[in-house]
Design brief:
heterodimer, A: alpha/beta, Rossmann fold, 10 strands, 16% strand, globular, B: alpha+beta, 2 domains, 3-stranded antiparallel sheet, 4 helices, 5 strands
Chain lengths: 338, 102
Amino acid sequence: MAQCYYAKEEGLEGLATETGAGQWGSALSFATQLFGLECKVFMVTISYHQKPYRRIAMETWGGDVVPSPSSETKAGRDILAVDPETSGSLGIAISEAIEYAVTHDGWKYSLGSVVNFVLLHQTIVGLEATKQMEMAGDYPDILIGCVGGGSNFAGLFLPFLKDKLDGTRPDLRVINVESTACPSLTRGLYAYDWGDTAKTGPVAKMHTVGHSFIPAPVHAGGLRYHGMAPIICRLMEDEFVEARAYQQNAVFKAAHSFAAAEGFIVAPETAHALRAVYDEALACKESGESKVILFNNSGHGHFDLAAYDAYHREELPDYALEEERLEAALAELPEVPA
Amino acid sequence: MTQYKYFLEEGDMPTHWYNVLPDMKMPPPPYRHPVTLDLMKPDDLAPVFPQELIMQEASQERWIEIPDEVQDVLKMWRPSPLYRASRWEEALDTPAKIYYKW
């Protein structure tokens, strides 16, 4: 909403964006309508085909959605020329959205995560939660959320982390959970890298698996981004937050446990957070500690039932990520002068 | 009896966003230009992002006001509830208290 507001104030006509699983694309498709803007969404192609109803929802809200890489941009055409069967990635979709924005008068680029201002806008989530936890009479010992670019979880945890940064709550734990298919925080390098695959966007210092890395086609499309919010990465380096990664079957097991008890069928991305909550809750069972765990339920899984079906049929793959693949992608990072 | 949900009224919605940058022990290093790899200037970002967002990106203000029009739109579905997952706690047989923000 905030990005659309500032775009409208500036007199723009439209915003172009990327989306993985489609939550961000949905948000922008609707928000642009409220502010009288047009919306172009480049949706990572594997997710575009895995979740057709998500695409239809975006179109219902007014978004013009294309699978990325597409033939509508040079960035997309270049990728398709080399690998026409690619599953795509958020890095590629970002390249396309930026190119589309700068080549169309009256358009600019909107993005769903990573940069500081997106995390800033998302803090409304955590600011509400701090008041609500007060109402509940509890304060979290552990905060847990899934991270693709980092904005949904940072939105929740930053207002609480303020208390750790000023020394009031030194023992607060913040666990960022990612997919083993795209392990920026747990297996990446803290280094400068392009934010997009075509190397047209800014270069940021962040935990990265490499801008050319194409993650395995896991259902958690929103977690398939090579980098991570620079704010989260800096906090990791300074040991204020921590990270872990899980495979698909582990997260869907936790998602089932949650759905059976609470009725909520979560998105595959959110299931990553659930698995960490599940593990921490079982650790408390072992130790007898009554820790307070707060997690971000970042989205429902109603467009992802095919993934749940695959899990039920024991046909959900767990992908190994060979070190050589990571090394190859990490060899392409820029050499930034000191 | 466990309370399952915690609600805020629309009037209780935050009026300012929290900017962590001034509170960080060390801020993230500034962005570099994609071609020259020099420090990026605000003008470099102007073709890509609206101006106000470029300023917010590097702001050192701890609290940034949420524009009235944005607050008004957000109130269509915010504040969102906080839930206590007490049935999941029971199923896991854990002494932990599990909350989630929807």
